[in-house]
Amino acid sequence: MSLNDRKDAFEKKYAHDQELMFKVEARTAKLFGLWVAGEIGLTGADAETYAKTVVTANLEEAGFNDVKRKVAPDLQAKGKDISDHVLDRKLEEYFEEAKNQLTAG
């Protein structure tokens, strides 16, 4: 294998890994959004629509702080007192679930 072949292989792997991480983060945000939707009393199409807004919010910055900022006022408006610790734990749980879903195939 030549040096150029190795370089190309590393670049392809890097691009694949970045694409996979993007998909995992988007799936995490959707699963988390569906959970929050349930917490604030949304079901069916309304829950799906809400989850999409959470996915969109996740595009603002790296990590999930943007997602937490999006859902916090919605939870507060419904009288749900859910700590940052619980939100972080749920995000970690859904991150692992999303990773498993996307790498299982």
From TrEMBL:
It comes from the Bacteria. Gene3D superfamilies: Domain of unknown function DUF1476. InterPro entries: ATPase_inh_sub_z, ATPase_inh_sub_z_sf. This is DUF1476 domain-containing protein. It comes from Micavibrio aeruginosavorus. The lineage of its organism: Bacteria, Pseudomonadati, Bdellovibrionota, Bdellovibrionia, Bdellovibrionales.
